C-alpha cells in the first residue's frame, strides 16, 4: 500500500461515524474504569484509616487504664508499706500493755514515768504511721470482719448472747485495713 492509500483509509475511518463511536466508547469505558478504580482505592484507604484510628483509640484507652491502675497500686503500696514492720512491733505494744499494771505497783515513780513515756512514744509513732487500735468493749456485737472468736462461754445474761464478753487481745487496723483481728470471748 502506498502512503496515499493509508492516508485515505485513515480519513475514511475518521469520517466514518461507527469508528468514531467505537473510539469514544472505548475512551469512555477506560475513563470509567479508571474512576471506579480510583474510587475503590479511596474507599479502601478510608477503611484502612478508620481501622487505624480505632486501633489508636483502643491502644490509647488501654494505656490510660494502665496508668490509672499503676497509680492506684502505687498509692496502695505506700499506704501499707510499713505493714510488716508494724505487725512485728504489735507484740511489743502488747507486752507494754501487760507490763504496765505490774510496773505501776512499784514504789519507784521515776521508773513508772520512764516506762510510760517509752510506751507512749512507741504507740504515738505507730499511730503516726497509720496504726489504729480497735475499740472493743464488752457488750459490743460480734463482727467477723473485725473480731476473731477464740472461745464461747455461756452468757451471764440473756442480752449478752452473741455479744462480746471479753477482749483478750486488741485488734489493729492500718489505713482502714485490718492487720490483726481483735481476739474476743463471745457469749452463747
From TrEMBL:
Organism the protein comes from: Faecalibacter rhinopitheci
UniProt name for this protein: Protein GrpE
Domain of life: Bacteria
HAMAP family listed in its UniProt record: GrpE
GO MF annotation: an example: unfolded protein binding
One Gene Ontology term, aspect cellular component: cytoplasm
Keyword Membrane: no
Keywords assigned by UniProt, alphabetized: Chaperone, Cytoplasm, Stress response
Gene it is expressed from: grpE
Main location as per UniProt: cytoplasm
Entry similarity comment: Belongs to the GrpE family.
Region of interest called Disordered, as start-end residue ranges on this chain: 1-41
Amino acid at each position: 500500500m502506498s502512503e496515499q492509500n493509508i492516508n485515505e483509509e485513515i480519513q475514511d475511518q475518521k469520517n466514518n461515524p461507527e469508528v468514531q463511536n467505537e473510539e469514544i466508547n472505548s475512551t469512555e469505558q477506560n475513563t470509567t474504569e479508571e474512576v471506579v478504580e480510583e474510587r475503590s482505592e479511596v474507599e479502601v484507604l478510608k477503611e484502612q484509616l478508620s481501622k487505624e484510628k480505632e486501633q489508636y483509640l483502643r491502644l490509647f484507652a488501654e494505656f490510660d487504664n494502665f496508668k490509672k491502675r499503676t497509680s492506684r497500686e502505687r498509692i496502695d503500696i505506700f499506704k501499707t508499706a510499713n505493714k510488716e514492720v508494724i505487725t512485728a512491733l504489735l507484740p511489743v505494744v502488747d507486752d507494754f500493755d501487760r507490763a504496765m499494771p505490774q510496773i505501776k505497783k512499784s514504789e519507784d515513780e521515776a521508773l513508772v514515768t520512764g516506762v510510760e513515756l517509752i510506751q507512749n512514744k512507741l504507740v504515738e509513732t505507730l499511730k503516726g504511721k497509720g496504726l489504729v487500735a480497735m475499740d472493743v468493749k464488752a457488750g459490743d456485737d460480734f463482727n467477723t470482719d473485725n473480731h476473731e472468736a477464740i472461745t464461747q462461754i455461756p452468757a451471764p445474761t440473756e442480752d449478752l448472747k452473741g455479744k462480746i464478753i471479753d477482749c483478750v487481745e486488741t485488734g489493729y487496723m492500718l489505713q482502714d485495713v485490718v492487720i490483726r483481728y481483735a481476739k474476743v470471748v463471745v457469749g452463747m
